[in-house]
Amino acid sequence: MPPQPGRLASILRPWGLIWLSICLHWEVLVQAVRRDGLAALGRPQQIRDAAAAKLLTGGFIAYEDITIVPSLVQAARGIVLELGPGPGNQIHRYDTSLVKRVYGVEPNPYFKDDIDAKLDKHGLRDRYKLIICGVEDSDVLRQEGITEGSLDAVLCIQVLCAVKDPKNVMKEVWRLLKPGGKFIFWEHGWSRNRLTTVAQACSNPAWSTFVGCHLTRNVLADVLNSGEWENPHEIEEPDEPFSLLPRIQGVLVKKKA
């Protein structure tokens, strides 16, 4: 693991990403206005989605390589649902000898080209299907055969911070997993350090507006309250008292009846 920065560096670090995202939003907006005229101003969600696609195709893979993420992804096996794959940063990390089928559930259509390119490169084209929707869109998932108790694993890497309603998303995840199925996750949420929570609250308006996720969610509670798990005591919370993005991580197993 990389050395932990001090408090001031930890507070300032997210603002670099905020500024980068502001620049990308402006770039996308200018391109859209040049292409479509003032009508582009009436499509703010498209601007946000396109800017997010540019932001998340940067150095995230290299950063995740020095975290627990690669080993977490390799715990996925059988029929897997990947929540919010974004540009497909996890595709190369799957153990292809263990994965039967992967469904990438992603509401942002601007990531499709990046995912397609990585599927071709890493030989998962015949086993990975991108579905442009949210996990709450049960009718769409049902058409793909994703129903209650149908999944061996759900992979969730930095997603619950960004969805509209993490409580409902987690309840749906628990419903779709088979008894004994795995919820594999690496997320961030509220800090347990009081001074850090103040910094999170101050930074969250700009962070959530431009980066697109939230610094102030109780993700741990949302995960634990979604249903019964066999091993909640195995959730890991690395000691990161100054970080505005403190992690929780682990592999939870859905309790068998």
Automatic annotation (TrEMBL):
InterPro entries associated with the record: Methyltransf_11, SAM-dependent_MTases_sf, Thiol_S-MT
- Keyword list, A-Z: Signal
**Where is each Methyltransferase type domain found?**
81-185
Question: GO molecular function, one example?
Answer: S-adenosylmethionine-dependent methyltransferase activity
The family database entries (SUPFAM superfamilies) matched by this protein are listed as: S-adenosyl-L-methionine-dependent methyltransferases
Keyword Signal on entry: yes
What does UniProt give as the signal peptide span?
1-32
PANTHER family for this protein: METHYLTRANSFERASE LIKE 7A, METHYLTRANSFERASE LIKE 7B
Would you tell me the protein name for this molecule?
Methyltransferase type 11 domain-containing protein
Tell me which species this is from.
Aspergillus felis
